[in-house]
Amino acid sequence: MTGFDIPLYQPVFGDAEIEAATEVLRSGWLSSGPVTEDFEGKYAAALGVEDAVAVSSGTAALHLAVLALGLGPGDEVVMPSLTFVSTAAVVALTGATPVFAEVHGPHDLGIDPADVARRITPRTRAVVAVHYAGHAADLTALGALCRAHGLALIEDAAHAPATATAQGMLGTVGDIGCYSFFATKNLAMGEGGMVVARDPALRATVRRLRSHALTVSAHRRHHGGPALYDVDGFGLNYRPGEIACAIGRVQLDAFPAAQAHRRAAVREYRERLSGLPGLVVPYADRPVEDGAHHLFPVVLPPGIDREALREQLRASGVQTAVHYPPTHLFTAYRERYDVGPGSLPVTEDIMERQLSLPMHAGMGSPQVRRVAEAVSAAWRPAE
Asked: Which residues carry this modification: N6-(pyridoxal phosphate)lysine (predicted)?
């Protein structure tokens, strides 16, 4: 798929996904309908919540979350810069201002509640907790901070579907949680997402806004429901497709086994990389079971040429990546929000040294061993 012997990620699909997609095609109904509703129910059950709202992407989930919370011009939302740009983009698109906060450091790439506290102003309305790589942010501290200041806590759980941790099921602890089912994710549908919220009114708002705020869905109209409808808000087309949700149901059934494969790979990675001088494996002090392990990030010691290391690994057939270029350094954010180099020194230092190694449910011990050996071989010149 990528030209690499060991790709960074590789979705695991089989006959069950093919048959599920084929059944939808045979049904003649491709947009949100009964398969979507069934997937929502099964995902909600996996999380232990009342209901969930399927949407077209993780970005759509985040956008609907900020819209449902009523965020807009004049409001501020505190979030990490160390995340995919969509976390900030959906806030910016409402007219609200993303305010970037530091992460803890190389051992914990989650947002630092102490730095969040320093950035709260009278205009702050919400905080976004990103569960980076599928590891829980400090929801206990962030939740207490949000309650003290009357702020909404949004969980960006794009990396952590149906993930139980010591702090609770990720995405269900805060006021509203958002998931991504993009092709690279642990639960892969190609495109797709989900929103959950503790407040039923907030969930109802998300459900209306995902389909133009229509009071009667297309599926109901097509299958004997009212022909006319009202529009009671300003919504968007963020509906998922039935084929994606059919694949999602199958992936959800296979999710526990897939996660077991990831956890086994993480255990072996941690053991095999432990002897490399100066290499930091974030979250290595946490139990392997306490995370989704969407990515396997490492932080290189100062002085190592990351691109030279990546080139050596590429020559060995191993694909790597950087997650993520800090959002506050992108041109659009520098120009509009007067941020840039030097404003988040901890984040900027880490992201000069971060590297993601291959991690997916198809990783077996031979692949992990080969990656670790390639890293070790490339490490020697830098020692």
From this structure: 185
Which part of the chain is CATH 3.90.1150.10? 255-382
User: In this predicted structure, what is the pLDDT of residue 2?
Assistant: 63
**Looking at the DSSP assignment, which residues form a beta bridge with residue 169?**
164
Q: How far apart are CA 260 and CA 235, in angstroms?
A: 39
Radius of gyration of the chain (CA): 21
> What's the pTM?
0.96
Write the CB contacts of 1 (distance below 8 Å, at least 6 apart in sequence): 7, 10
* Mean of pLDDT over the chain: 95
The answer regarding whether domain 15-102+109-251 maps to CATH 3.40.640.10 reads yes
Catalytic pick among 104, 125, 131, 185 = 185
- CATH topology (fold) of 255-382: Aspartate Aminotransferase, domain 1 (3.90.1150)
State yes or no: pLDDT of 219 exceeds 90: no
185 is catalytic: yes
Residues counted in the chain: 383
